[in-house]
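ok so i was messing around last nite and threw this chain in just to see what happens. nothing serious, just curious
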Amino acid sequence: MRVDTVGAVRYSDPEAPAQSTSGLPWAADVGPFPDKPAEDQARKQMNLPISLTLLRIFIVPILVVLLLTKGENMDLWAVGVFLAAAVTDLLDGYLARKRGQITTLGILLDPIADKLLTSAAFISLVELGLVPAWMVVIIVGREFAVSGLRAIASAEGFALEASELGKTKMVFQVVAITAIVLAQRYPFIDPLGGLLLWVVVVFALASGVQYFWSFWRKLDVRVKPRTRRPLAVLRVGEKQEEEKDVPA
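result:
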């Protein structure tokens, strides 16, 4: 009968613990190393909806190049790429809800991808002289303002959900950009593109006001409980501290 000189464990003893492959008895019952939590979390975050959102972000520079490059059928290629990116906006939300893959990363990236796509398209149209710059300033400025509100809201512990006005604005933006680009090939679409651009400006202002109002109401509710708090005050000549409610 052989005996392990390190652990003094008989190999033929049925009650003896399993020997580790390393020869160390203290490591005998250590199983396979579990996956790292960070890797599991990253694997869960990187799902199909997130991939579609990232694809929409990567499409942005391609769209800008297609819009600003003069060549045969480049406008049609630009419209095709832009509409494909817009379709991914519909698909990622639908798939996230259907598959139960709604994640924090997706909630943060989706509006960023939308704003990058439409803002890049509008700025390119300004460069081409197809839309007035002041209108694009209002549209893009609204996007920056809402993004700032979302960041502050997240820091305060609540989220600003997308409103119906904001979703409607996004639809009109896609249709307006498509119509304006195609109007260079089909002039009869030009009045429609101009009208849709005005509609986008109106919805941008209206949805922006709605976001500000929703943000202020939620923030006001959270700030009020902190407006008054007990503060210890020690007067000169007194030995005890007394608490008073004073404005923070």
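not much to say yet. Residues 44-217 form a domain with the Four Helix Bundle (Hemerythrin (Met), subunit A) fold (CATH 1.20.120.1760).
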